TrEMBL record, chain A:
The chain crosses the membrane at residues 6-24, 36-55, 67-96. It comes from the Bacteria. InterPro entries: Brnchd-chn_aa_trnsp_AzlD. This is AzlD domain-containing protein. The keyword Membrane applies. Keywords: Membrane, Transmembrane, Transmembrane helix. Pfam families: AzlD. The keyword Membrane applies.
From TrEMBL, chain B:
This is AzlC family ABC transporter permease. Pfam families: AzlC. InterPro entries: Brnchd-chn_aa_trnsp_permease (IPR011606). Its main location: membrane. It comes from Nocardioides panacihumi.
Length: 99, 226
């Protein structure tokens, strides 16, 4: 099942890239299409952050992951690079669990 | 001042190295989330667009069916469609060059290509950035995936929290304008509210859809980049 998901994702993502390079841009540069396109990444990433940090199966829980996210916020405000942000979130959560 | 071509090369390779390096976090989080090394590497080779890959892993790790992961991932990948439209008149790729070049259409190669004033330099920047990210991203995914399998319970090292941090780091630079900020918060709130009531994976797609709808209802004002 995971492989099926990977193959569908691969075909879908590649098709989007190829279509962008290939189609005449009249339809796709309409203002509404462009607005939707600009909104999709923040909408989905916002949802992904929340679910990743708060959900455990179908339950909402507050645990060390939330502290990890807080650490990530601080690091992003300090303009830390991507890997430092990710590692900072991990280390914060791991240390909290040790205590 | 160095010759323009040289600075394009140096900048493109620099972006390639910096971006490729965080493939290690993708590989580690993918295998720690239950994928095997082959699956992690297949995602980096075949999907090759970072946010979509993290999204797939995040949904699957949360217990969502792989097709929900695929749907989230493809929706996030839709921005590459618009990158392609912007790049097409600059790159003018035909035939097999377009078939291969399409896979290199990602955030970084687009930004580097469209940042050049001259078409030859734009093509050079696209190729160099795309190829260097591709090579390093895949090598580092393999390294990270092997490390991730050695870790055991991902919670011990806080890797579950690292995925949330990764999503936030991907989101952060997109919060450039008011609509994007509102939409991110609405997406997070709706998805959180749906967690107890829907199957894993669905809160993300439904939350994202609701947020886009809210975003369209906002006065358009300044439009941020996707």
């Amino acid at each position: 099942m995971i492989w099926a998901g990977i193959i569908v994702t691969a075909i879908g993502c590649y098709a989007l890239k190829l279509i962008g390079l290939s189609v005449p841009d009249r339809v796709l540069t309409r203002p509404l299409t462009q607005r939707v396109a600009a909104l999709i990444p923040p909408a989905l990433l916002g949802a992904l952050v929340a679910v990743q940090v708060l959900a455990e199966g179908q339950r909402l829980v507050i645990d060390a992951r939330l502290a990890g996210l807080a650490a990530a916020v601080v690091l992003l405000l300090l303009r830390a690079p991507f890997l430092v942000v990710v590692a900072g979130a991990a280390v914060t959560a791991a240390v909290l669990r040790l205590l | 001042m160095p010759a323009p071509g040289r600075s394009v090369k140096a900048d493109s390779l620099g972006v390639g190295v910096a971006t490729g390096a965080y493939g290690v976090s993708f590989g580690a989080l993918a295998t720690a989330s239950g994928l095997d090394v082959w699956q992690a590497c297949a995602l980096s080779l075949l999907v090759f667009t970072g946010a979509s890959q993290f999204a797939f892993v995040g949904v699957v790790a949360a217990g969502g069916v792989p097709l929900a992961g695929a749907a989230t991932s493809i929706l996030l990948g839709s921005r590459n469609l618009f990158y392609g439209i912007g790049l097409a008149p600059v790159l003018r790729l035909r035939g097999w060059r377009r078939v291969l070049g399409a896979q290199l259409v990602i955030d970084e190669s687009t930004a580097m290509a469209l940042g050049q004033s001259d078409r030859d330099e734009a093509r050079l920047a696209f190729r160099l950035t795309g190829v260097s990210v591709f090579v390093l991203w895949n090598l580092m995914t393999l390294a990270g995936a092997l490390a991730g399998t050695a870790i055991g319970d991902p919670r011990t090292f806080g890797l579950d929290a690292a995925v949330g941090g990764a999503f936030l780091a991907l989101l952060w630079p997109r919060l450039t304008a008011f609509p994007q900020r509102v939409v991110a918060i609405v997406g997070a709130a709706v998805a959180t509210g749906l967690v107890p009531f829907t199957a894993a994976g669905l809160p993300i797609i439904l939350g994202g859809a609701a947020a886009v709808a809210v975003g369209l209802a906002l006065p358009s004002g300044k439009r941020g980049s996707g």
